[in-house]
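Let's study a protein:

___
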Amino acid sequence: MANMIETAKQCISELLSAAYLRAAENGQLPAGAEIHGGVEIPKDAKNGDYAANHAMVGAKALHMAPRKIAEALVENMPLEGSFFDRVEIAGPGFINFFLGSRWYQDVLSAVETEGADYGRVDAYHGEKVMVEFVSANPTGPMTIGNARGGVLGDALANVLDRAGCNVWREFYVNDAGNQVDLFGKSIEARYLQRLLGEDAVEFPDNGYHGEDIRTLAALICERDGDKYLNVPSEERCKAFVEFGLPHNIALMREHLDRYGVHFDHWFLESSLHESGYVAETVQLLTEGGHTYEKDGAIWLKNTDFGADKDEVLRRANGFYTYYAVDVAYHRNKFVVRNFDRVIDVWGADHHGHARRFAATMTAPELEMENRKLDFLIMQMVRLTRNGETVKVSKRTGKALTLNDLIDEIGVDACRFFFNAKPDTHLEFDLDLAIRQDAENPVYYVQYAHARICSLLANLAQDGYAVPAAGTFDASLLATEQEKELVKQLSLLPEEILAAAKLYDPSRINRYVIELAARFHRFYNVCRLRGEADDVLRARLKLADCTRQVLAIGLGIIGVSAPERM
């Protein structure tokens, strides 16, 4: 796949190497050395499209002043057939390269040729990567935190896929443990209250107060009436959990499907217990000498691995802790399913846990050699409406859920806004998310795409079709706005690679915003109708390539690219 920025940098390195050999042959530079250095894109285009520091890096080896080296290199550097039409020396010896029309032509040709695959880079060569995200407790509706984790995990999986990874998306279902017991007790209380009256039954401490619990109780009453009224509490709660969990998991699937988030697998925590895998994992750690007993419980010597405290793996009552289950689950990811890398998308409250857990996973018995466990820790979200904070609380039931939010502002705004930089707190302005003006970033980007579609349709009615690669003259794209727009198109492979390396899919948000801005500047300065046919055709090609790349970028985030607005 084409990466025209890297191709240009490689061209510069080859030009400089060839220039050094010529200069050495004619005695202008000492022979027997090699020219190395870095190639960067200057912040100010006046300093060229690319700048190389090879002359300064080579000064020590060649025993010459950098500027003299640069002068010799430039003098022996023919540019014919390259991507560059001129070169200049600046400052102490920087060599600045200015792009020619061939490079601009090749960028547009790459967009056309690669189509929907434009921007892909094979940086990871099929590395098997799991991204585990959302993983909300199935004891109630998905919250705003789950909503942010959903889009960050999904968008991260998309950029990893485009960077050459073999990506697997997984949802970990916490269908065992104390929260499930409390879930059953909460449904039981609401069920009995429906049959006996609100005041007849006390609601459990720390129970789930949400309206969804009342709905589950109503569904059970509708289906079974008073069948469970005189059944022992333990049996009754078990039956309610067996009804409530699948019901909630089905709702989660439905709402995530609406959100555009799809998983390769929904992994049940209960399967780890039922298979004996948790017990086996704790036993392995014990046999390795990494545990001790205290007050009837089994503790992990986590401080031996560099953590700040030890962790309980099995309580005195014989039940395994969430920590032990997490260790077993991750051992399953690496040892049983053989993932090369696992990325967990967790909330800000898991920051300390992530550090301690990463230490645990270095235990030799967990077989982490040549494997990698990483965490994407996302910060908190504050929703505002009319300048005031929107309260969210899953426990009390006074929560704005993911489904509520989609009803209010739509999937596109949810996904675009939640895909903000993960390591910063997100101020989510619900009023801004529904505005139809340039202040709303998702509207601004989608409008650019729709504007291009309208432009193409109108020109098609005038008889102008988008020209194929090689049939238009890219040298006619001579204005600053046209060149800047092509340069932005060329950046997509670089942005995908950076987003994958940094676990920061929000880079794609920023990329498409800048691409839309450059298109709007181009459109406001460069006419199409009324221009000579060859100019119109070149600009038409540029507009169509921009449309394609905007759609690709929005697709990575999971946002639609409308043709009309």
